[in-house]
Write a structure and sequence with these properties.
Length: 78
């Protein structure tokens, strides 16, 4: 039993996908700015981030919940 659990723990990182998928698109800084600036992005869990054009952002888990704020900076190859 312990051996089975140990082998399963070793296999988990191997099963994870790394790198780009065939359908992924690499975006440069300008393309990311066009995609994010002034937009609200909704994540798979329903949480949302609003990215302002001045480099600030706000993140919330729910529409009526608290907003965590910060600053973002986009760079080529980041």
């Amino acid at each position: 039993m312990r051996l089975a659990l140990f082998l399963m723990a070793l296999a988990t990182p191997t099963a994870a996908q790394e790198g780009l998928r065939g359908t992924d698109e690499v975006l440069n800084r300008t393309a990311m700015e066009d995609l994010l600036s002034g937009q609200v992005i909704e994540f798979f869990d329903g949480s949302k981030s609003r990215y302002e054009t001045d480099g600030s952002y706000g993140y919330t888990y729910t529409d009526d919940g608290p907003v965590w704020s910060g600053r973002y900076r986009l760079m080529d190859q980041s």
